[in-house]
Design brief:
- The chain is of the alpha/beta class.
- It has ten helices and 15 strands.
- Helix 1 crosses helix 9.
- It starts with a strand and ends with a strand.
C-alpha cells in the first residue's frame, strides 16, 4: 500500500495532537518535522523516528511531501499554506486559518489554482455531544431555533502571555480571547444555527491585562438572516477555566452543550443526554485537556477525503465563514459599528 508522505511544521504545544494522529493512521508516513527552534525539532524527530528540518521551505523542497500539517503561530498560517500549495502539497492547518479575511481568501484561491486540498482544524465539531446536537437540530425534532448563546470564561494571565513571543499580539496572534480561546465555540454556535449572518454588533476591551494590548473581553450579537439571535460572552481573566457552554432555545425544547456534553430538555418533559464515549480516549501525552480527543477524527476524515478525491468537511471555504465572524467582531468592537455581511 502506498503511504502518503506527511510533514508537520511547528513542534509546539499542539504538535502531539497531529503527530500521534498521523502515526496511528496506517495509510500515512510521518517523514519530516520542522521548527526554527532546533532543540524542538530534534526532540520530536527522535521521538517519532523521523527527519528534522529547521527551515520550512527546505522541508518542502527536500522531503517529497504529499501533505503538510501547519501548527505554527497564527500569522504564519497563510504564507505557509501558500508556499505549500506552490510546491503542490496538500495542507491541513490549525485554526484560525489566518489573521485577516483577505489572507484566508488568498489561501483558498492559491490552493485551488494549484489543485491542492486545504483543510482547517475545528476538531470540536467531531465531539460526540456536538455531533448529536447538530443531528438533532437537523432532524427537526427540536423545531426552529429561537436563539442561541455561548459563554467562554477562562484564565489566561499576563504570565501566560509572557511565555510566548507571539501570543497576545495583534500582528502575530491576531487578537486575544476571541481568536484564541473562543473561536472553537463561535464556530460551533454558527454551525448549529446553519444560517447566513446579517450583521455582528460587538464590544471588545482589555480590562485586566497589563502586558498585552489585545482584548481579554468580548461580548455581542450575531444576527442571523432568518431571525435567530446569537449572543456571546467571552473573557480570559477568570480565575479558572470554567466549562464552555452553548445554549440553544428551540420551539420544542432547550439544548445545552457543556464541554462536549449535550443535554436536551424537551417541552414534553422528556430528556436526552449524550457526552463523550470513554472508549474514544487517546493518550496524546501532556497536552491541554480541553482539546479533547477529536483531532484524530478530523485528521482521519481529512485523509479519507483525499483518498476519495472529495473536499474535506471543513475546507477553506467552510473555515472562512468563522474567520469572517472573528474579524467582524474585532472590526465592530474597534469601530463601535454593526458590521454587515455581504
Amino acid at each position: 500500500m502506498h503511504k502518503l508522505r506527511v510533514g508537520i511544521v511547528g513542534c509546539g504545544n499542539i504538535f502531539p495532537m497531529h503527530a500521534i494522529s498521523i502515526k496511528k493512521n496506517e495509510s500515512l508516513e510521518l517523514v519530516a518535522v520542522c521548527d526554527i527552534k532546533k532543540d524542538r525539532a530534534d526532540k520530536e524527530a527522535k521521538r517519532f523516528e523521523t527527519n528534522a528540518y529547521y527551515n520550512y521551505e527546505t522541508m518542502l523542497k527536500d522531503a517529497n511531501l504529499d501533505v503538510v500539517h501547519i501548527c505554527t503561530p497564527h500569522y504564519l498560517h497563510a504564507p505557509m499554506t501558500i508556499k505549500a500549495a506552490e510546491y503542490n502539497v496538500h495542507v491541513l492547518t490549525e485554526k484560525p486559518m489566518s489573521i485577516h479575511v483577505e489572507d484566508a481568501k488568498n489561501m483558498i484561491e492559491v490552493c485551488e489554482n494549484h489543485k491542492v486540498t486545504l483543510g482547517v482544524i475545528f476538531q470540536n465539531r467531531y465531539n460526540k455531544g456536538a455531533v448529536f446536537l447538530k443531528n438533532t437540530l437537523e432532524s427537526g425534532k427540536l423545531g426552529e431555533i429561537k436563539s442561541i448563546k455561548c459563554q467562554v470564561t477562562w484564565d489566561r494571565s499576563d504570565s501566560y502571555y509572557m511565555k510566548s513571543d507571539w501570543k497576545g499580539t495583534w500582528d502575530k496572534e491576531g487578537g486575544g480571547a476571541v481568536i484564541d480561546q473562543a473561536i472553537h465555540t463561535l464556530d460551533l454556535m454558527r454551525w448549529f444555527v446553519d444560517d447566513d449572518i446579517e450583521y455582528i454588533d460587538a464590544f471588545i476591551a482589555n480590562r485586566v491585562h497589563e502586558k498585552i494590548d489585545v482584548e481579554d473581553t468580548a461580548e455581542g450579537l450575531i444576527q442571523f438572516k432568518h431571525g435567530v439571535r446569537g449572543n456571546f460572552h467571552v473573557i480570559n481573566y477568570n480565575t479558572m477555566d470554567s466549562p464552555v457552554t452553548i445554549e440553544v432555545h428551540c420551539e420544542q425544547g432547550i439544548a445545552k452543550y457543556t464541554d462536549g456534553l449535550t443535554e436536551i430538555n424537551y417541552v414534553d418533559s422528556s430528556k436526552e443526554i449524550v457526552g463523550a464515549d470513554p472508549r474514544e480516549s487517546l493518550d496524546y501525552g501532556d497536552v491541554k485537556s480541553y482539546w479533547g480527543v477529536s483531532h484524530i477524527k478530523q485528521i482521519n476524515d481529512f485523509y479519507e477525503s483525499l483518498n476519495k478525491k472529495e473536499k474535506p468537511i471543513i475546507d477553506g471555504h467552510e473555515a472562512l465563514i468563522t474567520q469572517k465572524i472573528v474579524n467582524a467582531i474585532y472590526e465592530s468592537g474597534k469601530t463601535n459599528k454593526k458590521i454587515y455581511f455581504k
